[in-house]
């Protein structure tokens, strides 16, 4: 399968310079691209590599085109955001290469008679769809998925195999959910009664917007009384835990292994690094970036990047610094004592000297 | 569905003040409760909100009732522990609202002829039950669960869909296991032989007590030679890892993303915060609370709260403090040098002055 | 079932001292072994316990045998690496005790007609095998596993129930994959376009070598353009996240809850501790050991052990030290001020004294 550059530009825009009939069979990085592929330059520091790439065509910015375009023998597509253009071009190729999914319900699926499955949807082998569930147009429900009662899944969404969605949760359109994800399990809610725990029924739902992606084995708990909400365009990596009653603002991206504790509220356009932990009941405003491995203990009211993890060192060096960290108070006391001693010396000595003078 | 307050009090106890025939349709927090709901006051600082709630009735302590009860227009239930009472009341409503599960084995389930399934149990679609397994009375086994050979599941337990239990593990009564949980996978046991790893077969089991709850995608490994033990009443959140041969004491609660390394022994009535990590082969006594994001490296022999995570800061500030943490030894040396200098000054200068005096 | 020691030695090697017809029914640690079991001594500090063990036979090193062998009443097997020998002996017993798996495809499995399943392989209930997949000889595919199109699984591999393998991934021979594992889900790749995210199709694969073991609920993402690679003999514990385009060198062991970010390259014979996090796009050479709870931010070019986590303390002590860590810069300024003051004092005071002298 190969396409002509003009097909790409007709679909995705951009300014094409060079032979519009140039055929490309796929997309690859500067260093790997063959003479039948298209590549992209998204960072000016790679201009030298761009000049040497074998690719038949290149996607680049106007600034980069002004700098190196004239030297480049192939065709160029000038785009405002070459990296986003690359992503869209890769989607274009992927769509061309995709094996079409024939709609229908696999004979080994178990769909409740009281569920509604759109005629264009696909339900895989051993998938289970509960009573009152609604599976939208062109939804692709992978093998082994279990969809609870009253769940709704919006048009064009893709659930990879072995996803579990508990009763009453709602999933938007064009949302992608990877294998092993569990949506709507009970939040961790218990009342302590003399040491033992009394379960608080979790009767809220999980509401997931459009164009969300959820990575493998991520878990999103249902709300206790109100709902857990994931707004549109949120991207969640693998192995993330989102606790009950969290609210994740639109277009926020969360990297793998992060944990968001109960009732935390994260704004729009934020990023949360891998294994970062967001404490419960705090609020983080829009455009906040929490670094990997960082625990956010209190609300963050100002945009910016926030970090907090212990620096790695050779083990012996860490042992020394960790011992000192535990004894910082002693260090501070020593500094105070020194300050006091010096103050006394300064006050006392010239005086003594002066006293001597006056004798 | 609504109930009269006297039904609640007959079932759960508490002192009812006001109209016992007041009907309530559900339970909600102070701020959200409508005139047809019951609410609760579990913290004296919310007394002002309680005075203004729209709820038809309120659960509160004797002290709070003495303080604000007279001002409240609705009915009151005075309870020793209003938050626990709320939990039980919510369970009461949830039970009334629950869709009953008809016992039986779904036609798409695969139950080994040598398994024993109680007549009152339910086995969902595509669930698989191995030879020699025992499924107790009123057990609810969700769709896609795979139950190994010789497993026993006690009466009244609920396994949500897509849970996997390996051979020979035992699960108590009234235990709730959420989707994606894996119980009894092999512990991480290998002998190193000149750089490569020789697998140590993991022949122990996982023994889980009564009234345990296990959150989505949590994993509990089987013991190497002895068993991994989770005592009664333990509550585990999502995405937790419990390694081989761990022993978790009764009524201990562990928050999401925590990891308990091999052969660790945690006491009763402990709490382990989110993403906390407990080192292998250590012992933690009863009533210890490990904060979120904390790594417990050594045994803890005294009850109390223990913490250890790097404080979050703006990225630039963190960079400075992290660089200083790595160089704390230098700081200490400087303090020592200062102490020495000052000591010398103090010893030396008055002497010089004195010497001058004597000249 | 019991075996004679000579069977063990014929199969595993080692020097047998004592009655070769001694029968043993299993293997147990020094303290637990009964008179019908074999035990092992892998650490000289346990020599006193070895002298008192009830075991019928003991595996030990030549050095330990020289020290205590003469005092031991049972048979001895002298091995170069007693702990590895123990592992192999335990495997020997486990193999004898194993319930044989009859080859064949369970009637409730869904195998695509265009898949190739070896005659000696087993495919469990509700397992799904896609078109073009190749399932090797003696492969054991657990119930509920979903194997994508074009996947290949090498001879002798064991996939426990509910494993998901996405299209086109390759798994070597004798590899063990535990329940809940997801292999080949999309990497977390998006281009930012004015705040929103454009998905970058993940078209690489996951390539897993021979003799790998992957713990429960671990996830390994497929590469973006190139492949994610797990070399032979790698051992991964539970709940690990390996991102797109990572390369894990042969015989490296990674403990539970660790996360390896995108395009990280870890050498051979490394170990990564529990909940450690390896940053994206960094390289770690062979024989590096990263401690538990440590975040590796930059490449590591020298073998050795590396650590970085905040030391645990009683909560109040931590609060003090954490406050000081945030203000280390102030502490440094104070030390500088002290150094300056002392320097001034030293320079100034003797001079004043001298000046007085000269007056």
From TrEMBL, chains A, B, C:
Q: Does the record bear Transferase in its keywords?
A: yes
Q: Note the CDD domains from the entry.
A: LbH_LpxD
Describe which pathway this protein belongs to, using the record's wording.
Bacterial outer membrane biogenesis; LPS lipid A biosynthesis
Describe the reaction catalysed, as an equation: a UDP-3-O-[(3R)-3-hydroxyacyl]-alpha-D-glucosamine + a (3R)-hydroxyacyl-[ACP] = a UDP-2-N,3-O-bis[(3R)-3-hydroxyacyl]-alpha-D-glucosamine + holo-[ACP] + H(+)
User: What broad class of enzyme is this?
Assistant: transferase
Which spans of this chain does the record mark as coiled coil? Answer: 321-348
Q: Does the keyword Ubl conjugation apply?
A: no
Top-level taxon of the source organism: Bacteria
Positions annotated as active site in the UniProt record: 244 (proton acceptor)
One GO MF term on file is: UDP-3-O-[(3R)-3-hydroxyacyl]-glucosamine N-acyltransferase activity
Residues in UDP-3-O-[3-hydroxymyristoyl] glucosamine N-acyltransferase non-repeat region domain copies: 21-92
- Name the UniProt key words of this record, in alphabetical order: Acyltransferase, Coiled coil, Lipid A biosynthesis, Lipid biosynthesis, Lipid metabolism, Repeat, Transferase
Its EC number(s): 2.3.1.191
**InterPro entries in the record, alphabetically?**
Hexapep, Hexapep_transf_CS, LpxD, Trimer_LpxA-like_sf, UDP_GlcNAc_AcTrfase_non-rep
Q: Which family does it belong to?
A: Belongs to the transferase hexapeptide repeat family. LpxD subfamily.
Function of the molecule: Catalyzes the N-acylation of UDP-3-O-acylglucosamine using 3-hydroxyacyl-ACP as the acyl donor. Is involved in the biosynthesis of lipid A, a phosphorylated glycolipid that anchors the lipopolysaccharide to the outer membrane of the cell.
Quaternary structure note: Homotrimer.
The UniProt entry, under HAMAP family, shows: LpxD
NCBIfam families reported for this sequence: lipid_A_lpxD (TIGR01853), PRK00892.1 (NF002060)
Please name the PANTHER family in this protein's record: UDP-3-O-ACYLGLUCOSAMINE N-ACYLTRANSFERASE, UDP-3-O-ACYLGLUCOSAMINE N-ACYLTRANSFERASE 1, MITOCHONDRIAL-RELATED
What name appears for this protein in its UniProt entry?
UDP-3-O-acylglucosamine N-acyltransferase
């Amino acid at each position: 399968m190969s396409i002509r550059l003009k097909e790409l530009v007709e679909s995705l825009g951009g300014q094409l310079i060079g032979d519009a009939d140039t055929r490309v069979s796929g997309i690859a990085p500067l260093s790997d691209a063959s003479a039948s592929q298209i590549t992209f330059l998204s960072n000016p520091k790679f201009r030298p590599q761009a000049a040497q790439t074998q690719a038949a065509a290149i996607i680049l910015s106007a600034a980069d085109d002004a700098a190196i375009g004239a030297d480049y023998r192939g065709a160029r597509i000038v785009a405002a955001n070459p990296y986003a253009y690359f992503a869209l071009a890769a989607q274009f190729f992927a769509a061309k290469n995709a094996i079409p999914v024939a709609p229908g319900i696999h004979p080994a699926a178990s769909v409740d008679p009281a569920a509604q499955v759109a005629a264009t949807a696909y339900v895989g082998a051993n998938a289970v769809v509960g009573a009152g569930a609604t599976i939208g147009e062109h939804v692709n429900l992978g093998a082994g998925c279990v969809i609870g009662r009253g769940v709704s899944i919006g048009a064009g969404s893709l659930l990879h195999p072995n996803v579990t969605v508990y009763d009453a949760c709602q999933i938007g359109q064009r949302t992608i959910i990877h294998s092993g994800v569990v949506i709507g399990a009970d939040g961790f809610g218990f009342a302590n009664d003399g040491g033992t725990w009394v379960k608080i029924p979790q009767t809220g739902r999980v509401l997931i917007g459009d164009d969300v992606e959820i990575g493998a084995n991520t878990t999103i708990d249902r709300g206790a009384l109100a709902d857990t909400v994931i707004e549109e365009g949120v991207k969640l990596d693998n192995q993330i835990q989102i606790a009950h009653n969290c609210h994740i603002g639109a277009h926020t991206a969360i990297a793998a292994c992060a944990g968001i504790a109960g009732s935390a509220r994260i704004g729009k356009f934020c990023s949360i690094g891998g294994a970062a932990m967001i404490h419960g009941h705090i609020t983080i405003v829009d455009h906040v970036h929490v670094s990997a491995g960082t625990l956010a203990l209190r609300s963050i009211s100002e945009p910016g990047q926030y970090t907090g993890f212990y620096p790695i060192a050779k083990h012996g060096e860490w042992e020394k610094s960790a011992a000192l960290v535990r004894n910082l108070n002693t260090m501070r006391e020593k500094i105070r004592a020194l300050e006091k001693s010096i103050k006394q010396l300064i006050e006392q000595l010239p005086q003594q000297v002066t006293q001597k003078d006056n004798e």
